[in-house]
What we know:
This protein is α+β, with helices and mostly antiparallel strands. It has three domains: 13-124, PAS domain (Beta-Lactamase), CATH 3.30.450.20; 142-207; 212-374, Histidine kinase-like ATPase, C-terminal domain (Heat Shock Protein 90). The chain has helices at 13-20, 39-45, 66-78, 126-170, 178-205, 217-234, 254-271, 326-336, 362-365; strands at residues 24-29, 34-37, 83-85, 91-94, 100-112, 115-124, 213-215, 238-242, 250-252, 277-284, 291-298, 340-346, 350-358. Strands 1, 2, 3, 4, 5 and 6 form a six-stranded antiparallel β-sheet that branches. A five-stranded mixed β-sheet has the order 8-10-11-13-12, covered by helices on one side. The protein has a two-stranded antiparallel ribbon with strand order 7-9. The termini are far apart.
Amino acid sequence: MALGLETADGMNPYEAYFEFALDALILIDQQGHIVRTNSAFHRLFGYLPSELQGKPVEVVVPERLRARHREHRRLYMKSPHNRPIGLNLNLAARRKDGTEFPVEIGLTYAEGTNGAYVICNITDISGRLAREADDRRREALTMLGTTVAGIAHDLNNPLSVIISRAELLLMPGTELVGQTRADVEVIYRHARRASRIIQDLLALTRQDPKPHEVVNLNDVVGRAVLLVESQMLREGKKVLADLATDLPAMMGNPVSLEQALVNLLSNAHDAIGPGGSVTVKTARSEHQADWLELVVSDNGCGIPAEAMSKLFTFLYTTKPGGTGLGLWLARRTTIEHGGTIEVYSKAGEGSTFVLRFPAAPSIHAASAPSSTAS
Ligand SMILES: Nc1ncnc2c1ncn2[C@@H]1O[C@H](COP(=O)(O)OP(=O)(O)O)[C@@H](O)[C@H]1O
Ligand SMILES: [Mg+2]
């Protein structure tokens, strides 16, 4: 391989290129024995320089592929030519420690003074394959998200009709009595549940936070309580609102905040039995100036100590028909509002969720709509 191209400092640029090339390189002779390997090869395969000299090249091929590789090599040597191999072939290489990784390989054939050689340049493509798999997964998720959002949106309208008709039928003073009233109540309860799941799915597939505006948190509480209270009353459960009259305004999205609160109320509703109650309280924070507090407490079943750390985990649920989305979404909404969420609970003694939000800058507070909830 002496090409007579040494530079003034005695370095052969071809040697230098071989040694320091980015790709892992192996020089093999016509019989498939390793003549030389470069630095990138040693880094990638975990061998020391010269450790493989004279060994058949199949040592770097996984055992299960060696026989096939030998056959390919024999055929190649019969009519050698420069070519890439491995594109779309799922080729694998084997490190010294026995682990495998996917590769693409280029073959360069060279006639030297002492016979023919083949230089194999080996590219580790595990990073690229992982990125491609990630892209495919992301694409599939985006498509799934769009489909789910479409279906959820289409289901919303018929469900709203079912809910409002059932609400009319259940109004006090209607002719609905006995078993029929009980059945409509069941229809209403399940339609409400389906509607909440749909709202959660829509929130889940949403990419960007909803736009923020000046919000009076008491109004949000008023609307959320209105949504849940008739059903709770019919089940002998109470929901109480304890709203601060001096509550500063906050910046936020009223729909997202209402949904987060409805999720907390619906959990409280599930946790209490007949005779149980839920209280929603708003207040100026006593601990942080210019912060608001929203506290939802119930006297229901409480949360066992071992479950506390899992509550806000995506899809965590202990309910047979639960989705495990409610608290995850409530936490996401809280964070999107620059706030915090904490939970205090003891099994058998009820639970308290405390959400804290920064107040809007005072210029907004002055123009916040006044509370109509009571
Ligand atoms: N107020 C509460 N009282 C008791 N357990 C609760 C309360 N809120 C949440 N949990 C527990 O947290 C879990 C997760 O709640 P959530 O994310 O809303 O999902 P889901 O209501 O669909 O189960 C519930 O399954 C329940 O075990
Ligand atoms: Mg829930």
